[in-house]
Fold these 4 entries.
Entry 1:
Amino acid sequence: MAELLTAPDLVAPDQDRTMILNMGPQHPSTHGVLRLVLEIDGEVVVRVAPDIGYLHTGIEKTCEAKFYQQVVPLTDRIDYLSPMHNNLCYCLAVEKLLQLEVPERAQWLRVLLSELTRLNSHLVWLGTHAMDLGALTVFLYCFREREEILRIFDDISGQRMMTSYFRVGGVALEPPLDFHDRVRRLLKTLPERIDEYENLLTGNPIFINRVKGVGLLSAEDAIALGVTGPPLRASGVDWDLRRDMPYSGYEKFQFSVPVSNDCDVWARYVVRVQEMRESVKIATQALDGLPEGRIKADAPKITLPDREAMKTQMEALIHHFKIVTEGFAVPAGQVYQAIESSRGEMGYFAVSDGTAKPYRVHMRNPTFATLQAIEKMCVGRLIADVVAAIGSIDIVLGEIDR
Amino acid sequence: MTSATENEQGQQRDAVLQAHGQNPAVAALQAKLPKAVLDAQFNLGELTLTVAREEIVNACRTVQSAGFNFMSDLTCVDWYPNHPRFQVTYHLLSMSLKQRVRLCVMVPEGDPSVDSITSVWPAANFYEREVFDLFGVRFGGHPNLRRLLLPDEFQGNPLRKDFPVEGYR
């Protein structure tokens, strides 16, 4: 096991054979501000030490100073590619502490939007990953579809990226009138669009040569290093929280979990592209079966009242005033809630001391752990393969540094 | 803590352990390290086992061989000004059983240190560095215990409760 631990600080070697190379924090393939310190022998990587923290903003500390409902917008900012997953995980954790039942319509809306978020995130991953490896066209194709998803987010929540649409006890608003038609149109076109991307990459010899057999990670190493999500499934471990430990009503949906035994960057590509197809299926089911009913739990002291009720009923006005000025108290306790985000297991550990502010919120973010596997993937390979390996773990520095 | 409340806590622990005797983690710990479990709680469907500080590596190894193959998360809670102050928390997952268990270690303020579990799960590497960085809890036997998120010259441990949210100016 010891060989899986990231090497201590890399200092300049006292011989002429190897040298230290800083990759990042401003390298375009590091997707943000990741700094990798590489020790190289010619063009072969000998050791890798990731250096993170450039985007650390102390979100966990800030959470402790906010009311429970004020933390929701903070969770958006952790992972700017899948804000809804962060919203969902946080809301589920607080709802578990409150033992609050969420109405079915809200649950289905959450599933629908989670899957759209996964598509959004995977589209950005596919575009940038292919661009890192020299296939520039795919980026433009992916962003065309991503733009439509962001427009839908804009319509439903008023924000393209920092949606804050899921709230404790339900979702913020009823979807707009043309929501169904737009999502339906999008979901109809997506399968053939995914075929288009695959046409550009799956048979492309340049792409295949860059990714096949690169960045190998065995199943045991993946589990020992805390790797989750598509990289874990690409190493042959059949594990998906949506199916194995369902939350928010996922047990009602039919989908398959793509797994590959190739353990390389290629396998991660195949698994993610398959996952996009499965997401389309889940989202279609959620749209078809979207039940009618309330979008917020019937808990006037926790969920904000409707605007209409607030303006006509004294009691609703008082509840609104109380929630906004004093928040709502959450019974003391500790919960760990995990969901399958686009990158793997996202977990929120929430501790309450019985007041209206969380005592502690800790986010377990998938790529934070997955990044530890970068050394295992890169050692003994060429520098160019490091770029492929970083892309294959779909790294988002915002969620690593928080 | 008076002996009466201690007694009460012991009874509560035994009741929880008995109720969850079927749980592989509880069964393995009861069989191999009967004295290591100091407290057991079952709330909101989640099982929390508080383990003696010096036994955490053994406890992790025992629970790992009982089928909890995956370390999901490792973090810390600062209970300032209560004693013991720090609660280092381990979230373990069993993929075959589809179960989770939470292990806790209480760490006193005067000597904030606990043994590193990187020998059991290398995944703990970054997590322990993060806790060291933000809480100042040291992990004995960690191969590279340095600050992870904050710059090396940073003063203080921001997630401690006595560190102001706005920082020191």
Note: The longest helix of chain B spans residues 3-19.
Entry 2:
Amino acid sequence: MSSNKPSSSVQDELRTLLNEEFSQQESRALASSFRHTADRLANEADSATRNMSVFVNEARQQTPRLRRGVYVGFVATALTAATALVIVLHEEPLPKSALSSVTTLKTDLTMDRVDRLSFVAAKKPRPHIRSVSTTDVADILTDAEEDQVIQTITQSVGYGSTWTVQDSDIDDLLGGKNDGL
Amino acid sequence: MAIILESDAEILDEYRTGQRDRAVTAFVRRHQRFVYSIAYRHLNHIEDSQDAVQEVFLRATQKLNEFKGESTLQTWLYRITVNVCLNMRRKRRFMSFFAIGEGEGERDVASHQQSPASQAVNSDFETYFKTVLETIPTKQRETFCMRYYDELSYDEISAITGTSEGALKANYHWAVKKIAAAIRTSEYYEEWLDHVK
């Protein structure tokens, strides 16, 4: 550490400059005031930086430790990833029989699904509409008794069918059967 | 092995080939006043300047092995210190903008406060001297401080600032005369004359 007082060359230079403007006595007084403040600033700096070398050395010790920690962490992660990759790459391929089994299983499952769909379709028959013209019905009615008519209609139309009869059709039917009543 | 590391060359040699802790201790002790003075001139705050000094030496020692000697260690340290101080000032502005920690206003007030011990020993004249120093133009002040307080040669200051030696000498000349003129007309000067008689 350099001494507090400015070196003689710097102080001489200052005094020379001051001599250009002021008397020798005044220059000496001014120069000493400059030197006094320089001493004060130097003392303040020394006081503020006391033990700085200790702090810096401690900080230096901590920094590599931190770096080492990061490095170890990085290496550990890289090793884990590499191990996982090796395991995946060295895993034995599936035997052909396994592939065949899978195909069979898949087929069975597909067929099973088709069967189930057929069953569902059978349970719920699609409703169908059969249209019977009024004249056909009128012909039937003219040739048959009421029970026969119903039976004929039921057979003709079938289970689950809908048959809508309009008023005019009924009139036609009744008129045909009850003609003259 | 040198018993006491006195020169930068010895410090560098010890750092590269000997005990690093010893070299760092010598390195810090040799330049801590210089670095602190620069930091304080830029930050005007004791605690911030102390933080800056530690950061500067930490950065410098991390790169000390790569130091090629193209400039002096002081020149190199000066550049690191100015960079660290600029970063700290930027950070301080950012924190004050978002009102994190102390505000800028509080900081300015705090920066001009001195420790009780320092206040007790500092005369009004010294305080006045510092005030005068703050009123002269930045280039003149920085040249004066580097030449008179840090005792750098004009050659070294020129390498740091990129200003010619002639311009630096002129800056120093004007700075000294302005400070002297301000002191002579102050109310403290008579007291000082009595003090030095």
Note: The CA atoms of residues 138 and 174 of chain A lie 9 Å apart.
Entry 3:
Amino acid sequence: MTLIDFETYRWDAQNCVRCSNCRWVDFIWMASLQFSKICPSSARYGFDAYAAHGRLEIALALANGELEWSPKVLEEIYTCTLCGACDVKCLRNVGLEPTQTLEWMRQKAVDDGQGPMPEHKAVAENIANNRNRYGTPNDNRGKWLRSDARPVQKADVLYFVGCNSSFKQQQIAQATAKLLNASGTEFMILGEQEWCCGNQLYNVGLVDQAREMAEHNLKAIEESRAKTVVASCAECYQTLKVIYPKLMGKSTTDLGFEVLHITEHLDQQLQNGKLKFTAPVNMRVTYQDPCRLGRMSEPWTHWEGKRGKYGIFDPPKPRRKGTYGAYDPARNLLNAIPGLQVEEMERRKDQAWCCGASGGVRDAFKELALWSARERIEEAKEVTGAEAIISACPYCKENFTEVITADKERLQTLDITEIMLQAISPEGKEAC
Amino acid sequence: MAILKEAYQALESIVGPEFVSDDPGIREAYRKGGYGKNRPALEGQALRPGCVILPGSTKEVQQILKICTQYKIPFIPIGCFGIATQSPKVPDVLSIDLKRMDYLEIDEKNMYAICGPGVIYAQLQAECLKKGLATEGPGCGVGATVIGNHLNAGVGPLEYRMGWAQRRMLGLEWVLPDGDIVTLGSTSLDDEDYFWGEGLGPDLRGVLRGTFGWQGGMGIVTKMATKLFPFPGQDLERTGISPRTGFNMPPHLMKWLNVFYNSIEEAAFAMHELSKAQVGMALMTAPFSWRYFSRATSKEDFHESWQEALPELKETTPYMMRIMLVGLAGPKQLEYEEKVVREVIGRVGGDVREGRPFDESWINNADAHRIMFPGGMETSMKFHFDSLDASIELAKAAAELKRKYTPPLLDDYGIPGWLQMGDFGHVAFCEILVYFDPTTDPNDCYQHEVGFVESVRQDLELKAYCGLQGSYGPEPQIIGPAYNNYHLKEKELQDIFDPLHISNPPRPLDYAYGIDLDIDLSPQK
């Protein structure tokens, strides 16, 4: 069974007016021909089947039995990073929510025994067997901890570390822990009781397996009695805040705990004077808004009802337009670091270009993921002349790093926790 | 796929395998274009193309059209696909998506830009604003391609000063349906020179121009120069998070003056008088419904607030005339123009209020598609160029007619559309907009179609210009005889340029397909 009922969104697919706004940067914010696009798959492949407006036509044809599954059709729907840009653009004007249909297509692909892609199945198998996406024993999940990071047994704040920072880019977890300590935040971790958040499982249409992750993690969080869950990974953050309530048929406000990204938490600590940056970081940087921290992170409100004439939802359904994404906390933090020059790219905040890693794209369509990252790196260099591109999601950093290494770029990429660590102690610089 | 394997291989050899496809999913995405796609006339008639190709250069376009000629493959050029006329209506069409051809060059000194067919207005405007220049974003939105819109009509808020798009057309490069290349204006003398539109002898731009034009029925224009205009774009500040994004206008250089009236006649008289003074960047009377579209947070919010406001609006019939003033030569020009406007309004009457120095609609028309917001579909019952007086007469008659079909059309008050001066008062543009839901109840579409046909008959009775209907729907069967059988002459002209009838058939005679409705389309006696 698909989680999303296409019949609720059939009206959207039927009433897409093919204005193509879904593949362009907001026309007000568009500042050049070169950086005018916002949909990576559309920009990379060109055909309309790789943009939301074309995918809506494909969805209608699939739902009506006019189009059959094929490897190419699967490619057309799985090359989307589900970055949410099309939703933001369409909700600005026409008022449709294409992402609901994009997600439905993947769920239907799984239901019909066609999806997800083989690479996604491999990740799903890892998760099923080992509770993390890399297939490493989950007992090792807490091994990123060093003696200078000090979690406690019981605290109001739970740090949800995520697979990437637990097993691959452990320096992000270590920096996060030190920053929590430095800001006077007592925190705990779940250790091996933390399972993969399931972001990718949900995004590739494996709803049941994603729900299993949700149920386990929600129970573990409940048992920990945490009041606040902090994530340093934008994907984990969005999963906890948006996807779990969606999977469990409730609203974010009904979770029983608050979900914060590390940038939101530390910004609060900065504002109330508990976090101070004292060590200068003399560098010119630009900031990459992770899609799942920015435009995709607005709280989920459970809705049940019907759709009537003019596409009106009864009762009214709250739309997630990207307006209230977490754009400012990271900027507040970076701007508070002495010596750091922060320059904006043309495509920023709700209009940011996706790094290309999300939605299962990096696993199944590596070439597209790296192409998308390369586009962003070009923008960072050309528009801002930056020395480093800072992100707040380990998957952005991982994707950028691969391109930077392959292309022997002088530009660096850092997670925001790493640069903040440099600013709280001179040793932090060496650690990074 | 019924396109011959041999032809497909030839196409593949031109663009490479990456840019041509006969995959069913890719083809499905090119079945239905935007505007009007749900009109019964087109629904069910739109077919999946046989193949889709993305050329990257004029040379590739030329080679593709030669293949089409050789194998008699019907083809459809596509810009942004925002219009239903680019939907395939005959089998085994080759859809030629031109988005890769986003060539753009701006001659700052001589104030023109050369565009490829993949360049959209927003891209052109973004590059222009950096250079102290501007183009006019059309009312249909700046996601429209520059060339496609110039070949269409191209009406937008700044036409008061800039004129509509087809009149801004300069030198161009045009690949005829058989693959021959024609260059017009100064380009015919020098491939690099696009400055002049006029060449020697008859001006072939006349073949390309026209309200709603050929819609791909006359080959492919692969490069076109368009006039640009001075505009202090560098001083605009981009601001806001979606959906509330806009330009902060520099107060020393730009200003809105909004003037309120309780009758359209008073507003029109003021527009007349202001045009004579030749000041302002734009001059328009817009319906209040647009404010509600713009401010609504959701469809539900719009319908609730609109229904609440409507009784009073019907009672008081307010109209807002908006004037955009721009100090092109500096703050003193702005001061002067404001004085002139206030003097004129002081003389003719009207309640003048200064608007917030913010724009999301006129400079880059970012919110054009909000007109789809209330219903799902918008169509233009009238698309009328004439004198202001004639426009007012037609607008009032159209409002009456619209009421007859309301519901299913969305309820409104007064003149449900916009009136705008073009070319500093030499022409008035009137567009009457209707909003409806094309999908929930089939009868709504039927009623809309019936109203549309009746609207054409109304045009003829009032001797009003049938701009849109003349080349966009089934109505030319009615209009043709009244306009010298223009539609048959159009067909004769096409026979010369496209004897094989492969350029977006059945253009220009789309209406030959008729509509599958029991409506008598014969001229009324």
Note: The radius of gyration of chain A is 21 Å.
Entry 4:
Amino acid sequence: MRRLVAIAGVALGLAAGLQASRGDERRSGATFMSPQTQALQADDAANPGMLSVADGQAQWSTPAGPNGTACTACHGDARDTMRGVAARYPAIDAVSGKAVDLMGRINLCRTRNMGAPALPAEGAELLGLAAYVGFQSRGLRIAPPTGAAMDAVRDAGRALYTRRQGQLDFSCAACHDDNWGRRLAAAPIPQAHPTGYPLYRLEWQATGSLQRRFRNCMTGVRAEPWPYGSDEAIALEAFLMDRARGMAVETPAVRP
Amino acid sequence: MPGSGRSRPKSLAEARRLVAALALLAAWPVAAAAETVPPGAVAVVGDGIPRPLTDRPGDPARGRAIVVDRQKGLCLLCHTGPFPEQRFPGTLAPDLAGAGSRWNEAQLRLRLVDGRLLNPDSIMPAYYRIDGFVRVARAFAGRPILEAQDVEDVVAFLATLREEPVKKESP
């Protein structure tokens, strides 16, 4: 009984933290979940996404590349240096002038600075590092970078968000703006705020990225999914993160 | 030698299968000769499509099976309806109960073929259209969601749904 009360308390606390401020209709996807799944996210000892965080923590200090350097060589203790970083991605990479997401940034660091090969998209290593870096922003507000270059990327993302796609001819907005809270078969449609990536999805039985989620939705409407790391995926991520500006980072979230 | 000719049937069962296959082959030209209106050549008249897409009358039982099939008809992802055995229908679209009293077959046919001709903002997919789409997955490119006969079967089934939905009492 005490355990039940504790779970209910945690879930209530989580729900309160996930509701945007008064007058703001924005809601984290977590608020659409069952109390049990909310409790799973809220309890670090039970949240399966914490395994990816632990994985990333171990990699953070593991040398890679010909010089045997680790992330720690430049960035030291992630708990200090990575605080708030994930809340500001995607961002413009100064060298290429292109927008990159957090996983793209990690791979640029490896290839440019460490001489190590890029980690494969959606592999446990890259997801782990992104989860560990993202975890350092948990509870902080999403704060995307300003500027004309990012605005252009976000505009492209907005256009993709509202464009109908696939044989079923759905836009993201048709479900996530116009019909959130209703049910697509058994599943409640959330508002599509990417507050907790990488996250553990029960359906996947795995930690995965926002880009994997895009691919799921696109497959659902029978559209050709975007490749990992494509300009379209980064643009949509940039638009959605701006749309979620001010909401709390939840990484690693749990979703059904 | 493979491909050099047919060997003789070795058993009665095999002979039966061969006869069945031949019967199917014999039936094939008849089915292929059935006149089908291709996507894009469908004639809209007013708010409906009066002419059936095939010259074979729709089969309501087959239509019902398509409607409840979540990979084929997809209807119950968004619609609820008089399907007591079906769990977890969607809540994005109107109840299908009473569809046959709200609309005639011509109107139902247009709503299935391309409902956006009536309401451009509708989320209802166009079930019998093949152009005007963006980034269709390779596996589905160039073909409609349902074939012409499927559409006729679904129209025939929806036309049987004469009873309006039961009004739920407010809690």
Note: Residues 1-7 of chain B have pLDDT under 50 and may be disordered.
